[in-house]
Amino acid sequence: MRGIRIGAALTAVVTLGVMTLASGGTAVAETAVKFALDWKFEGPSAPYFVAIDKGYYKAEGLDVTVDTGPGSVAGIGRVAAGTYPLGFFDINSLVKFRDQNPDKAVKAVLMVYDRPPFAIVTTAKTGITKPKDLEGRILGAPAPDGAYAQWKAFVKENGIDASKVTIENVGFPVREPMLASGQVDAITGFSFSSYFNLQLKGVEPADIKVMLMADYGLVLYGNAVMVNPDFAAANPEVVAKFVRATIKGVQDTVKDPETAIDSVMKRNETADRAIELARLKMALKDNIATPWVLANGFGGVDPARLAASIDQIAVTYDFKARPKAEDVFTSEYLPPAGERMLAK
Question: 190-226: per-residue pLDDT in tens?
């Protein structure tokens, strides 16, 4: 992963570079911005690369660099520390982070996964078809996994006797291989990650069973673009420009995922194009272009639902001082809803 040096002031993260435009030879100052993904360069990361390749960030005067990340939970600390002024991580984990670190007011500014990809994934040979079937089975769950963090709420909503489920802490790299080989009966993970990773391990698509937690009682949101508070205070116009350009990348990706995936493949040449395109389409359908988003515009939240989701997080987590919805998400950088509509 590429790193950056941090100066005494957070504004050192953002530097001004001068670039000559071929069209007229005019010198234009561009603001260099580092942006951290939650994971690898895979299908769902297409919108950011589309925004780079189509010049949407550049048109806003931004020179954006996108880096891979350590997972949907762990990267929040990087944004809080200013290592990255902007990042793409799990808002539910941000709720907990804000409770644990009240002096680090990281906020989400653009909701990307209106429905989170948190899932329980299993295979046909296990006979598991519904949540209660997990009783008496072995669940492989990486301790820092964003989906596993919702386990207690999932248990409550579905009447599972958790004492009858054996939880095995497994590493991210071996999670799908262990399920494919039968060492565990089910795993927690992101739906569009585990589903296609299992295929790469030789499991037939028809034999993969995905229980999306959002279909089983969870009202949670998923990953969002979040910003360091000091950076936002010093550079509000940069945040608004980044959000605006990213939305254009999302809109283009929804319209034409077959072309958008090319922007990912240019940066991950070892990936399987067919798999990454299918992964992207799955994320668009299940998590990004949801019915609520199609009706209300991309990038915002329903404040009442966000508040309810924080209440649901309280099932899995003991708050010291429960954050409010407005503590973890702000719409102040969003353009009007009419500019955020997605193609149906």
Answer: 999 999 999 989 999 999 999 999 999 999 999 999 9
DSSP helix, strand, coil percent of the chain (3-state; round to 5): 45, 20, 35
The two tokens of residue 289 are: 């272009």
pTM of the predicted model, to two decimals?
0.89
Distance (Å) of CA 239 to CA 34, 137, 246: 12, 46, 11
DSSP symbol at 190: E
β pairing state of 27-36 and 62-67:
parallel
What confidence tens digit (pLDDT) does each residue in 100-115 have? 999 999 999 999 999 9
| 153 contacts 311 by C-beta, under 8 angstroms | no
Helix (H) or strand (E) holding 119: strand 118-123
In Å, the largest CA–CA distance within the chain is 69
Q: Which two tokens stand for residue 247?
A: 């939305």
**What whole-number distance in Å separates Cα of residue 145 and Cα of residue 39?**
12
